[in-house]
Design a protein that fits this description.
Elements lengths: L1 H31 L20 E4 L5 E5 L3 E2 L9 H11 L11 H14 L9 H10 L6 H17 L2 H11 L6 E2 L1 H9 L8 H8 L14 H17 L5 H9 L14 H18 L2 H6 L4 H20 L2 E5 L3 H15 L6 E8 L5 E5 L24 H12 L7 E3 L20 E3 H6 L3 H11 L1 H8 L27 H8 L1 H4 L1 E2 L5 E5 L5 E3 L6 E2 L3 H17 L12 E7 L5 E8 L2 E8 L14 H9 L2
Helix pairs in contact: 1-5, 2-8, 4-5, 4-6, 7-8, 8-9, 9-10, 11-13, 14-22, 15-17, 15-18, 15-21
Length: 617
């Protein structure tokens, strides 16, 4: 009788055995297809991901963050054991015992899916989930599942459990473009993971099981229920007591969601531009671009540079800058309000600290939004007479024996077909160089350029960072600021720093660039060089000061023991400039319209003077 019953049981099991054999045979055949793929090692190095880039002001306070995905990877030793235990108990209780996959869980899933005629039931270990994150799709098919098993086994052979767990905890998805347990802590509670309470740690641990369903910003109650379920699991598995579990359940959960810091958009936009230049200079791309034999080569090197910049930024950076946040905020607010009383008028300004030669404040246009056209360093405009100190008068006093008291003709002048005129067509007799500078007479400036020599004068100008000058600019109209392309507001402020003490070093916003660990990756290496002798500096500072007191700079009123400046107006009143310096700052101001138009009707309002007064205090 017993034997008969045994035969009956065996016969009844045949269908189940056949089903199981079919699945196993199919999976073995599929697995064999990946044999070649596994001849090489499966690397456990983190995949290419985009980490945040953080910008710090002069006081090391964050003022801007750029990221698509929020990540804050942590070493395993910095992840509390309690959190590790929560995720192991909820996701893979046999993690430390299996070889990458769990046979018993797989058989349970196979039979459950066979009974339901689906492939929805999962049996993934933590190792399998990491494999899926790294190498495979999330498609639920048996073919993909087999590949996952084999990869997981290989990963376990090549790595220890701690490495696998650390990578898993730093890469799992926590909804809202948040990846990793450390990032989840700072994103949802505004605190590092080790500062969270245990209840908060379990709460964020509830999210990865189904980031859409357990998104706490949309489905808070569902996430809370999942948290309580995990606490029950901990109690059931004797990881915590029932009393402890009840205490965790009853602790109120209050989210303090992180918002992306995006202050001072014009300054942060410029910093990201400067970062590209810093990488280009530091890694030799700039030299390659400048020495390219043709346009195609230059384009190739520029593309190489952009690829490298993207690669560097994706690793996550901390950019330390010279931004003075209070000054930036006040300057932008004042200029915006001033411009809002006009129609379509635009402005740009740059302020540089005299001691450090660092950019501390910048204005790039009214109502500026991040990555808009930055008029401070992208708008190339004619400089007018604001260029005279750099191209004409500085070289004159540097290279000749002339003094401000020497006289020069202010009368009519023609050089071949070029016949410049003074403002309003005025004709003067002999005037002192000081007077010609004070009132920005034009014909004396052209005569002085003749005296120095065009090439000699441009040799001095080319010591600075004027990036839009061309050989065709080497003409007499340049004495009055007539250039083929023009200059930017930043370039003008930068060059005027040479009148602080005769020394010049390019002005920058970036102090250094570090990784998350504080290791310095990039910093500017330029040294100061002497461009003007002490004699020339003293003369030029006196002349610039005289402009403010007696000349075209009347209306400038800055609280400083020294204030010197030069104004500039271009043909048809298209551009107004003031560039100058005080004891503390050097700055340049430009106002005009994006589509140039005559500003003579608003000249008397001296808007550029008002801006200069604001940014220099």
């Amino acid at each position: 009788m017993r034997q008969a019953i045994g035969y009956i049981i065996v016969l009844l099991c045949f269908p189940l055995i056949w089903i199981l054999y079919s699945f196993i045979h199919s999976e073995i055949l599929t697995a064999s297809e990946f044999k070649e793929d596994l001849k090489g090692a499966i690397p456990l190095n983190p995949p290419a991901i985009t980490s945040p880039i953080v910008l710090l002001d002069k006081d090391e306070v964050i003022f801007s963050e750029d990221y698509v995905e929020w990540r804050d990877p942590l070493p395993l030793e910095s992840i509390p054991l309690f959190v590790q235990e929560v995720l192991i108990q909820s996701e893979d209780v046999e993690f430390y015992n299996h070889i990458g996959f769990d046979f018993s869980a797989i058989f349970r899933a196979v039979f459950a899916n066979a009974a339901a005629n689906s492939s929805d039931q999962g049996a993934s270990t933590i190792t399998q989930q990491l494999v899926r994150l790294r190498y495979l799709s999330t498609e639920k098919t048996y073919e993909r599942k087999v590949t996952e098993l084999v990869y997981a086994y290989e990963m376990e052979k090549q790595s220890n459990k701690e490495e696998i767990l650390e990578n898993y905890l730093n890469e799992i998805y926590f909804s809202n473009k948040v990846y990793g347990i450390g990032a989840a802590a700072t994103y949802y509670f505004g605190k590092p993971l080790n500062a969270l309470t245990e209840a908060q740690q379990v709460f964020i641990s509830a999210i990865p099981n189904n980031p859409s369903v357990y998104n706490p910003l949309k489905n808070f109650e569902a996430t809370k229920k999942r948290q309580e379920l995990l606490i029950d699991v901990l109690v059931k598995n004797d990881k915590i007591s029932t009393e402890h579990g009840n205490m965790l359940k009853n602790e109120p959960i209050v989210l303090q969601t992180k918002t992306k810091t995006q202050l001072y958009p014009v300054y942060s936009t410029y910093v990201l531009d400067e970062l590209k230049s810093l990488i280009s200079t530091s890694e030799g791309f700039q030299e390659k671009i400048e020495s390219a034999s043709n346009e195609q080569q230059a384009v190739f090197h520029k593309n190489e540079l952009q690829t490298r910049v993207n690669e560097v930024i994706s690793q996550g950076l901390v950019v330390h800058t010279a931004l003075d946040p209070n000054k930036q905020k006040e300057d932008v607010s004042y200029i915006d309000n001033l411009l809002n009383n006009t129609k379509d008028l635009q402005a740009a300004s740059v302020v540089i600290n005299n001691d450090t030669r660092e950019i501390v404040s910048m204005f790039g246009g009214r109502d500026y939004r991040k990555f808009d056209f930055n008029r401070a360093n992208q708008a190339v405009r004619q400089p007018g007479s604001a260029l005279k100190p750099l191209l004409v008068y500085g070289p004159v006093f540097e290279m000749t024996s002339l003094t401000p008291n020497n006289e020069i003709s202010g009368g009519k002048l023609c050089i071949a077909s070029y016949c410049p005129q003074n403002y309003g067509g005025a004709v003067y007799g002999n005037v002192s160089l000081k007077q010609a500078f004070r009132f920005s007479h034009n014909t004396p400036a052209v005569r002085l350029l003749q005296t120095v020599g065009i090439e000699e004068a441009f040799a001095k100008l080319e010591q600075f960072q004027f990036n839009h000058l061309i050989e065709g600019d080497h003409t007499y109209p340049a004495a009055l600021g007539g250039l083929t392309n023009g200059v930017t507001t930043l370039e003008m402020a930068d060059a005027y720093t040479s009148f602080i003490d005769g020394m010049y070093k390019p002005a920058h916003a970036i102090r250094k660039v570090t990784n998350k660990n504080g290791d310095t990756l990039y910093e500017w290496k330029e040294e100061k060089m002497e461009v003007w002798s002490p004699k020339t500096v003293n003369i030029m500072r006196d002349l610039l000061s005289d402009v403010v007191v007696n000349g075209t700079g009347k209306g400038i009123n800055v609280k400083s023991s020294y204030v010197g400046a030069k104004t500039g107006t271009t043909n048809d009143f298209y551009d107004y400039w003031i560039t100058g310096l005080t004891d503390t700052y050097t700055a340049a101001v430009w106002i005009g319209y994006d589509m140039p138009q005559n500003m003579k009707p608003i000249e008397s309002r001296k808007i550029h003077h008002k801006i200069f007064n604001q940014i220099m205090n």
